[in-house]
Amino acid sequence: MANRVLAKRQPDLVRLEGRRVVIEVSDLGKSLYWMIRRGRIAPAPVGAVDLRIAGSAKDLCRLALRLDDPDTLFFARRLVLEGETSIGLHFKNILDSVDLDWFAPIRYLPAPLGPRIRQTIDRAIRITQADRRLHDILDRALQP
């Protein structure tokens, strides 16, 4: 899914070719090792990394959902970056330039089904203000 979201940014990822990153979810004791290979995110074997990003599950979720700025989490010592932080900064800039389209999978449905589903969802969100409500619910649920 990440590679699909970042497909348009593939030329920017080339600069990170071969770089290894680990994201550690400190309170769950879980780690995700990945690297950039041929302009795409790929799993990496456990071992030495160029950048370590660590935080609690809540803080990493808040970061992923863009509820908190990475700098805010870092300076509040809720997010740890170790190693070549320039890699993290470059990747952050790539992510900041991406407009997340949660409806992208609908585009793969054949016409007229895909466009009709998208219109129906857009209308329902507009009428119910579900996007704002969901943001508020997630913000409250993921409070530090």
UniProtKB/TrEMBL annotation:
<protein>
    <submittedName>
        <fullName>SCP2 sterol-binding domain-containing protein</fullName>
    </submittedName>
</protein>
